[in-house]
Every structure is written in C-alpha cells, then in structure tokens.
C-alpha cells in the first residue's frame, strides 16, 4: 500500500459538512445582528463585573472541575453540584457525550430539523445519523421511536428546537423516554429553556433524577454570555463520571466560571430577559403573520419565518441586509429553503424588521 504524502483524517471526517454560523454583518456597513440568537439585553451587569474581576487572577489555572460555577448552578436550580459537568459551551459537552457513547456501527436518532451540530458530532465518531420526519416543524415522538434499531445508542432532542422554535411538552418527552431501551441515552438539549413561556414545558430534570439514561444540557450563550463559552449538563452519576474522565482538565476558564456563577445568581436579570423576549417574540409573530408569510410558533428567542418559495426568502434576506438587519438563512444548514430565522432583539430592531418585510411583501 503506498504511503500518503500527508496525515490522513479518519474515514468519514471529510464527508462531514462543517457547521456554518450566521453572518455577522453586511458588506462594508454596520448592521444589527439578528442571526445568532444572542441576548437582546446584553449580559448581566453582575456577570460583567465578575468577568472583569477575574483579570486579577489570570496567572493561575482555574479550579479544574468548575466548582464555583457548579455550586452556583446547584444553588439556583436545586441540583446536587456533583451531578453537574461544565464545558466550553454546550457543544463541548455534546461532543464529549458523543465521544463516550457512540462508535463505529452505532446510530443516533434526531428529528429532521434538529440542531445541525448533532450530525457533525455523530459522524465524527464513526456512527450513523438517522433523521426522522417532523409533524409541522415539530419533533414527532412516534417517528423518533420508530427509527430506533438495535444499533441506536443516542437520541438527540433540542427542546425548544433550533431553528424552528417548536417544543415538546413534558408529557411527550416522558413518552419518548418511556419508549426507549435503558441502554439508549436521551440527550435533552435545553439551550433556550430560559425563554420558554409554555405552561406544559419542563426542562427534564425529574427525568434525569429518576433515570440512568437521560442527560440535560444547558448553555449561557443565549442569556448574555455567548463570548464566554459556558455550557453545563446534569446527568446520573455514572454518566457524569464517564464525561469527567475525558473532558479537558481546565475546560472552562476562570473568567467564564466567575461570570457564569454571577449570571446564574442574577435571577432578576434572567427574568427581565425572558419578559422582554416574550413581549417582542409575540409582537413580531403577530406583525408578520399573514396570508403570504407564515411564522412558526416559537418558544425560543427567535422566530422562523416561512415565505412562499426559496426565491422570496432569498430576496427577503438581501432586502433586510440592505436595510441593516442580518438574519439567518436556513437553507444550507437545515434544508428549509423558504425560511429565515430571526433572533429577537430590541424594540427598534423588531419594528424595523417588520416594516422592511411587510413593505417588501406588499410591493410584490
């Protein structure tokens, strides 16, 4: 066998489509960024102060288990800190979960329009991703369960989901879990939990506590600390132990730990963020919903707008960009060619987006 002239990636790696983030701005001009589902109110002032204070301690390694952050999360959410693992963003933890529980010949199941990082994680381990069809842009529990085979090791569930904003109520999540074998890990990715207002939604913590095969993953990125890269997960002791064995020993830096702990405890800011988002998410949904535009009901800090066809969606993206608003195209990453995902921002931004889109549609 001839030797390669350079290092060769493992089989399948170069077949993986890389994650493509939303655009940050228009060509040569400042723009209002509504493409990454960031906080519409910035960061908690307490978190900013804590991050700045960490500058006095940059010469020492952080405590390796993120203890101060885990203790803050445990205090606020009523969780045993020993059952919490922190990571460099929630995607760090999702990758670790895949690395521990997936391998060559295994399968992981997800819904069609689930978070686009799940296939990357799955394929990188040598496993196969199995996508199921949805019911009106919402994960279908029956379809997910029907896709399970003897090779299934993980079911990925973003709840609420990105990029659709739809969610499964507690009863449906429990039905999904009840239909899985005990050796299949249910990963509940609650990246947008802070924004949910639906009364029948639960984060799944009771399932984690009562089961050996459920983990709940969360992030600070959507609540003002996207630049700090802080994720956390809660799981049963055996899974926490396995993840801790392979995670980086200092995988969350000290400024992030301190800012995260302060943000977790600043529940007043979190409540203000949720209230602002609910007000303008519902307002923008109502302002855009029409015979020619469909807005998928959302429980996250964004909405998915569906246009008549791909050409109209592309024109809407360019029209918004020309007006100074950057939103998220979801054709390439998610296969929703006629859709645009719009993050909830300031009142002025929401009114501006509505004016641009409604004017464009009226002029057709």
TrEMBL record:
Every Aminotransferase class I/classII large domain range: 31-356
Alphabetical keyword list: Amino-acid biosynthesis, Aminotransferase, Histidine biosynthesis, Pyridoxal phosphate, Transferase
HAMAP family membership: HisC_aminotrans_2
Single Gene Ontology BP annotation: L-histidine biosynthetic process
Enzyme Commission numbers on file: 2.6.1.9
Catalytic activity: L-histidinol phosphate + 2-oxoglutarate = 3-(imidazol-4-yl)-2-oxopropyl phosphate + L-glutamate
Organism: Devosia oryzisoli
Organism lineage: Bacteria, Pseudomonadati, Pseudomonadota, Alphaproteobacteria, Hyphomicrobiales
Any GO molecular function: pyridoxal phosphate binding
Pathway(s) annotated for this protein in UniProt: Amino-acid biosynthesis; L-histidine biosynthesis; L-histidine from 5-phospho-alpha-D-ribose 1-diphosphate: step 7/9
Start and end residues of each stretch annotated as Disordered: 1-21
Family, per entry: Belongs to the class-II pyridoxal-phosphate-dependent aminotransferase family. Histidinol-phosphate aminotransferase subfamily.
Modified residues (N6-(pyridoxal phosphate)lysine): 222
Name of the protein in question: Histidinol-phosphate aminotransferase
